[in-house]
Design brief:
With about 500 residues, this protein is an alpha/beta fold. It is about 30% helix and about 20% strand. Strands 1, 2, 3, 4, 5, 6, 17 and 18 form an eight-stranded mixed sheet that branches. Strands 7-16-8-9-12 form a five-stranded parallel sheet, with helices on one face. Strands 13-14-15 form a three-stranded antiparallel sheet, with no helix packed on it. The structure holds 3-acetylpyridine adenine dinucleotide. 3-acetylpyridine adenine dinucleotide binds near residues 150 and 181.
Length: about 500
């Protein structure tokens, strides 16, 4: 990698999704102007640019799906659709004057840390490299579509669509469609598909807990109040926040409230599904919260439409003309929709990152990622992560967690710049102690209670979720304690 004449930025932000844009806004607000946001795609928006399948929407209330430092009184519904969310990201990018900092079509191919200079060297595919005093990796944990390892998948001669890369040119009218997967994406897609397709067969491996969503339009008066009355938006936000904090008691840990969540799920199943056989097939066999809770009012009704069928036999193979199940039935299909989630095998390190002493992050994370307070990793100075290891909420908005991460890392970057540090590197003992506590606490959570989910690695390690309340997480990230770090200036090295 050539670095000699590369420009030096104070901060390089990688990714222009929710986290990258939020970071850019906060950097500007803290007076840091010499930064760039590098985005591999040709537009901003990250997950909300990529996930455009029919029915794509947020299953977290909109009020909590915007930054408190960039409130949005305009949300049209309790839960907003993907187009509106993307519109929000675009509008705050323009409003907070982040646009001039964004470099589209800059795909980072690798990064290495120059200890002597205290600079990250960043290489791109087909672009000039840059150097930066600090880097924020905001590239998102769920970006690459995950296709299942089903024999014969490549032999299918019909149309294949992944939920995260929807093909809007494909006309579903009258088509025989097979949907593989029944997770958060699938329960949003299926109600839309059954309206258009000739027939829809839903291949379910594991039924999930489906709770009522109750999506309401925001009334004109309510909107006016959010616009005009100081503090009204914040108040509504707080109400949703603490509502979700209490949900944690029924989702994160196995408590009597977990039973309440399950009762609500069972009641919806009983109310919406009359056929006892179908109801049995749709009854989850794991504790509510172990996998992500599914929020939908129209998924069960969609499954019972005349043109829809739930298939619960395991898939044996995919053939050129459709799907064969284990009992030998052939299900012909014109199109297979893969609502099978994301490839998390490279989670957190989509790019090669080399830190101090030639350490390679992907090697260290081979058996599962770890960090200090989810935002920084020992041996990789001046590098900060958003949505890093063990920052998954499971019960509250990812944005709430992201905001704490962003505020923490902007404070840390301010320290690097103000004190002219070459390295701010978290101490390994602090990181180890932190992770030992996190993993001990995770042992008592429902996520580790025995179901299969993308939260866990193959050997059952949980590098994904934060085992606590959002309030607790916020508290942990409220300050940058320099005692946690080895602090190096150009002249001296002192811990
Ligand atoms: O993916 P998933 P997703 N044979 O991994 C099935 C976020 N999100 O895209 O449960 C048969 O949850 C698999 O079956 P099983 C959110 O964080 C947010 O739905 O493993 N089936 C499962 O049913 C979420 O957690 C929103 O047995 C196979 C499905 O495919 C994350 O994205 C909306 C299979 C995959 O479910 C991922 O959700 C949507 C196989 N070989 C998503 N392999 C919001 O609203 C996999 N499956 C914010």
């Amino acid at each position: 990698m050539t670095t000699n004449h590369a420009a030096v930025l104070d901060v390089a932000v990688i990714g222009a999704g929710f986290a990258g844009i939020g970071t850019a806004i906060r950097l500007r607000q803290s007076g840091i102007g010499n930064f760039a946001v590098f985005e591999r795609g040709s537009a901003i928006g990250g997950t909300w640019r990529d996930n455009t399948y029919p029915g794509a929407a947020c299953d977290i209330p909109s009020r909590l799906y915007s930054y408190s430092f960039a409130p949005n009184p305009e949300w049209s519904h309790t839960y907003s659709g993907s187009t509106e969310i993307l519109g929000y990201i675009e509008s705050i990018t323009a409003k907070y004057e982040v646009t001039p900092h964004i470099r589209l079509q800059h795909n980072v191919s690798g990064m290495w840390f120059d200890e002597e200079a205290g600079l990250w060297n960043i290489a791109f595919e087909g672009r000039e490299p840059v150097r930066a005093r600090a880097v924020v990796l905001a590239s998102g944990p769920l970006t690459e579509p995950g296709f299942p390892d089903i024999p014969g998948i490549d032999t299918f001669t019909g149309h294949k669509i992944h939920s995260a890369r929807w093909d809007h040119d494909y006309d579903f009218t009258g088509k025989r469609v097979a949907v593989i997967g029944t997770g958060a994406s699938a329960v949003q897609i299926i109600p839309e598909l059954v309206r258009k397709a000739g027939s829809v067969k839903v291949f379910q491996r594991t039924p999930g807990w489906v709770l009522p969503r109750v999506n309401r339009r925001t009334g004109t008066l309510a909107k006016e109040i959010y616009r005009q009355v100081p503090g009204a938006e914040t108040l509504a936000r707080q109400a949703w926040f603490y509502g979700h904090e209490s949900v944690a008691l029924g989702v994160v840990w196995n408590t009597p409230l977990t039973r309440v969540v399950e009762l609500v799920g069972r009641a919806q199943l009983r109310r919406q599904v009359r056929d006892p056989w179908l109801r049995r097939q749709l009854t989850p066999e794991f504790r509510a919260g172990c996998k992500r809770l599914l929020m939908s009012d129209d998924y069960y009704p969609a499954l019972q439409r005349d043109n829809c069928k739930l298939i619960t036999w395991p898939i044996a193979r995919i053939a050129p003309d459709g799907i064969r199940t284990a009992e030998g039935i052939e299900h012909r299909a014109d199109c297979i929709v893969f609502a099978t989630g994301f490839d998390v095998s490279k989670k957190g390190t989509p790019i090669p990152i080399t830190g101090r002493d030639g350490r390679v992050l992907a090697d260290e994370w081979r058996r599962g990622a770890f960090a200090y307070r989810s935002v920084t990793v020992s041996g990789y100075p001046n590098l900060f992560l958003t949505f890093g290891p063990n920052s998954g909420p499971g019960h509250n908005s990812a944005l709430v967690y992201m905001e704490s991460q962003i505020d923490y890392l902007v404070r840390a970057i301010r320290i690097i710049l103000d004190r002219d540090l070459t390295m701010l590197d978290v101490r390994p003992d602090r990181q180890e102690r932190y992770n030992a506590t996190i993993q001990r606490r995770l042992g008592a959570t429902t996520w580790n209670s025995g179901c299969r989910s993308w939260y866990l690695t193959e050997d059952g390690f949980n590098p994904t979720m934060y085992p606590g309340f959002a309030t607790q997480y916020r508290h942990e990230l409220r300050d940058v304690d320099l005692d946690d770090y080895t602090v190096t200036t150009a002249r001296s090295d002192h811990s």
